[in-house]
Amino acid sequence: MKRMSPSLEDYLETVFKLTNDDTGVRTTDIAAELGVSKASVNQAVGLLSDRGYVRRERYGPVYLTEDGKIRARAIYKRHQTIKAFLISILGVDEHTAEEDACNIEHVISKETMDRLMDYMEKEIEGDG
């Protein structure tokens, strides 16, 4: 997988979170969610489109491609796993865990992330 900037990962993850089934997402909604300008969203969407992760018709909604869904789902899972670890294992409050997970997800190594996911899966199985 080609390396993406943390900012582009955030945009892709946001499109994923705001997408219901196969409906597209308006740039206005992405901008509101991330607290950025529509111009910034348009620039990021252009870069994501160039990489094959989203498609967009002029002035229309943004749609994830199949590659975009796969990449976004992986980013989202990474984020959620880190957040869950911070809350359930370390006892961090949800707001802080959300912010920290957003930062950590961009710099954590694949090896550490794989081990964290394995650990959290065992924790979940242990609760059942």
Structure, explained:
- By secondary structure, the protein is mainly alpha-helical.
- The protein has 2 domains: 6-68, Winged helix-like DNA-binding domain superfamily/Winged helix DNA-binding domain (Arc Repressor Mutant, subunit A), CATH 1.10.10.10; 71-127, Iron dependent repressor, metal binding and dimerisation domain (Diphtheria Toxin Repressor, domain 2, Orthogonal Bundle).
- It is built from 6 helices and 2 strands; from the N terminus they run αααββααα.
- It has helices spanning 6-18, 27-34, 38-50, 66-89, 94-104, 110-127; strands spanning 54-56, 62-64.
- Strands 1-2 form a two-stranded antiparallel ribbon.
- Strand 1 and strand 2 (62-64) form a beta hairpin.
- Helix 1 crosses helix 3 (38-50) and helix 1 crosses helix 4.
- The chain starts with 5 loop residues before the first helix and ends with a helix.
CATH-derived topology of the largest domain: Arc Repressor Mutant, subunit A
**Helix proportion range:** 55-70%
- β content, as a range? under 5%
Strand order of the largest sheet: 1-2
What's the quaternary structure here? single chain
Count of beta strands:
2
Averaged pLDDT: 92
What's the helix count?
6
Rg from Cα: 16 Å
List low-pLDDT spans.
none
CATH architecture of the largest domain: Orthogonal Bundle
How many separate domains?
2
